[in-house]
């Protein structure tokens, strides 16, 4: 079980600017907290989905809080097949 480090992002910040420095924007849907926009490191996420797949369960460490989630969407750039955004759905701890 690998944990990806994430940080809450300001939705006013341009995603293109963040991608230039290696951050991947995403949204965590559901849960008690509501929908949370976040960033993870793009290279870590690419390695994770290469090993586990695009519909796998992932644990993210969002500002010190460990959250279990399922990858529900991965958006890719048309020309380069590069991941440009990710959508996660929060799962309860008892879901396998």
Automatic annotation (TrEMBL):
It comes from Clostridium ganghwense. Residues 6-88 form the Large ribosomal subunit protein bL25 L25 domain. The keyword Ribonucleoprotein applies. The keyword Ribosomal protein applies. InterPro entries: Rbsml_bL25/Gln-tRNA_synth_N, Ribosomal_bL25/Gln-tRNA_synth, Ribosomal_L25_dom. Keywords: Ribonucleoprotein, Ribosomal protein. This is Large ribosomal subunit protein bL25 L25 domain-containing protein. It holds the Pfam family Ribosomal_L25p.
């Amino acid at each position: 079980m690998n944990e990806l480090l994430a940080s809450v992002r300001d939705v006013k910040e341009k995603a293109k600017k963040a991608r230039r420095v290696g951050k991947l924007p995403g949204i965590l849907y559901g849960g008690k907290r509501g929908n949370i926009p976040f960033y993870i490191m793009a290279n870590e996420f690419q390695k994770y989905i290469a090993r586990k797949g695009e519909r796998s369960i992932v644990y993210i460490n969002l500002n010190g809080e460990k959250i279990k989630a399922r990858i529900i969407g991965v958006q890719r750039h048309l020309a380069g097949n590069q991941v440009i955004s990710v959508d996660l759905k929060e799962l309860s701890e008892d879901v396998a």
